[in-house]
Amino acid sequence: MKNRITIDVKGMTCDGCEGHVGDALAEAGLDDLEVDWRRGLASGTDSGGFDVAKAEAGLEGSNYEIVSVSSPTAENAPTEDAGDHDYDLLILGSGSAAFAAGIKARDLGATVAIVEKGTIGGTCVNIGCVPSKALLRPAELYHQAGHSPFPGVETSAGDVDLGTLIASKDELVGVLRQEKYANLLDVYDIDLIKGTAGFTGPNSVEVDGRPVTAGRFLISTGASSWVPPIEGLDETEYLTSTTALELTELPDELIVVGANAIGLELGQLFAHLGSKVTWVEALARIAPFEEPEISVLMRRHLKDEGASIHEGALAKAAGKDGDRVWLDIEHEGSTVRLHADQLLMATGRRPNTASLGLEAAGVEVDPRGAVIVDEGLATTNPLVWAAGDVTTTPQFVYVAAASGNIAAENALRGAGRTLDLRTMPRVTFTTPSIASVGLTEAAAREAGYPVMTSVLPLSSVPRALVNQDTTGAVKLVADEATGELLGAHVLAEGAGDVIQAAVVALNYHATVDEIAAMFHPYLTMAEALKLAAQTFNKDVKNLSCCAA
Predict the structure, then answer these.
(1) Among 99, 285, 350, 380, which one has the highest count of C-beta atoms within 10 angstroms of its own C-beta?
(2) Angle at CA 50, nearest 5°, toward 49 and 53?
(3) Is the pLDDT of residue 16 over 90?
(4) Which domains does the chain possess?
(5) In this predicted model, what pLDDT tens digit does every residue of 70-96 receive, in sequence order?
(6) What positions carry a catalytic annotation?
């Protein structure tokens, strides 16, 4: 019987690579070969003699690595060791990772159930990405209305009706929850089991005391807001990233503890609506995981907008003074008391694993409670996989969705697929926004690369000049020996859109010279990548518009 095999191959960078990989696969028993180095894929016909081990041996000592092998014919085969179970795959949780896994499993012909104790849809649609961005945009427009940078154009901002804005956000969330989650249960014939699930053994789960059996299990229960132990905090009314999005009255003054992505986004949301915001960050700088140049520029911008910022400051105690809250912070060797109408704790999220019975299941977690998984999303229990924010992988919805897809196929078909985070971007939706992909300068040096960098201020970007808004910069990190791009970091309007070009460049191992030689449309923010690449070899201040 002939079978078409598709193989993911890492390390191919040119047409010659296609020939080397193709020769090894042909020797291992594949015919009618097609190899595409740009996509990192190879496919061929197996007449029954293909030997993966032989293919791997043929590539040993090269830069090429087989990361997964899949077959459409094999996908339609029944799950191995399925036995007499209620379902082939039982998924705990109903967020992005869960639905990606469920859809993939149904595509493979498996029977699937999702267990959810609360509201279907998980963090992103209910209390995360969707509601926060639905509020960030109108807050940005409101702020811009009161701060026009253009001579001759007078604008003004009226009153803020936060209750109406929140109601509009809730309506959008309800629509997307129904269309993107609840309705898909019937589309894909996935069962929804309402209740609280927990493992009672390595291969057994109960939902509200009722056993539900499955051949394989996937944990995708997400994460929740976490606050550090602070004296008096439990007796103090404080906001989290969830409850902050439910306020119907705008606080005059707001303290935000935490100035990473969530803290910066939500703090600026209220600042743009008119609140006086004070940020408290325990680490040495706000946006602590971004490049230092970006942190400095963002700090300056927020202060120009009227914010107060305390970096390297530890929250020590909290309390109430009438209708107001106070927070004691330790900053530069002394204790300072801050006062505000509301206190927002944006100090991170922790995985939801406490009630899952993972010890009984033999599933190991790290000190934060995150499920430990390997590159294929497998846990320490051979019947259990995990995906999304509940794991040790980065907490981004697109990582969760990719993880769920990979985990389901690996669990049901032993596909050997892995999660490759080398080109994973991240975006902070502030104004201007922050976006990054790849290595920072410090991480590249730590990894042993000979590093060269370029930093392009937005004052050298025509789009920014036209916008009369030059707050920001683009920093590129490259391998000095080869010129290959290692990382890109952007602070600019639309940085999240700009960064995708850098994602593609990283994926195909482009050099900064190749990026500089590519067409970039004039008067777009994307042109900043080209200019930043040119900065390695030229002073772009002395170039004409669009100069190559």
Answers:
(1) 99
(2) 125
(3) no
(4) 3-75 (3.30.70.100), 87-224+351-413 (3.50.50.60), 233-347 (3.50.50.60), 425-542 (3.30.390.30)
(5) 664 444 333 444 458 999 999 999 999
(6) 12, 14, 17, 64, 124, 129, 545-546
